[in-house]
Design brief:
Helix content: 55-70%
Number of helices: 4
Radius of gyration: 40 Å
Shape: elongated
Length: 151
């Protein structure tokens, strides 16, 4: 006599029907096949990994923080706001510093080139050419080196 038994695949969720044979022995008792025939051990390991980028965790995690320590989510958001404000201020200062450096470099180069030109006009062609040419070569070198660092 066949007794249907259902089993579910944990990965796919499909349900399949297994047939097992139950028999009667000579005394009329109901017996089953050995356990290793009937039982299939199915083990499934589920691993969950969560990853987020940035200073603010996802809302579900913020809720868990708040459950663990009331007010923790507000503290995390405040810390993220302070970090953002600090980053913006640092970038603003870096931009000012870079602009100031460009202005000073331009003034130095213009002054050196002007000195070379004045030296040439006063009859010292070799010294004026070295002075002005050196300035131009320095600017070209700095420009090329700056572009190579960016790449």
């Amino acid at each position: 006599m066949a007794d249907p038994e259902e089993t579910t695949d944990l990965q796919t969720g499909e349900t399949t029907e297994l047939e097992t044979q139950n028999t009667d022995d000579s005394a009329g008792r109901h017996t089953s096949p050995p356990q290793d025939v009937l039982v299939r051990d199915i083990f499934s390991i589920v691993a969950e990994s969560m990853h987020f980028s940035g200073p603010i965790p996802p809302p579900s995690m913020l809720k868990e923080y708040n459950e663990a320590a009331p007010g923790a989510a507000d503290l995390i958001l405040k810390m993220a706001e302070l970090q953002q404000a600090h980053r913006i201020e640092t970038e603003r200062e870096d931009t000012k510093r870079a602009n100031r450096g460009q202005i000073l470099a331009f003034l130095l180069a213009a002054g050196s080139f002007a000195c070379g030109t004045i030296t040439i006009l006063h009859g010292h062609d070799t010294a004026g050419t070295i002075f002005g040419g050196g300035t131009i070569l320095s600017l070209v070198y700095a420009f090329i080196r700056g572009n190579a660092k960016k790449e």
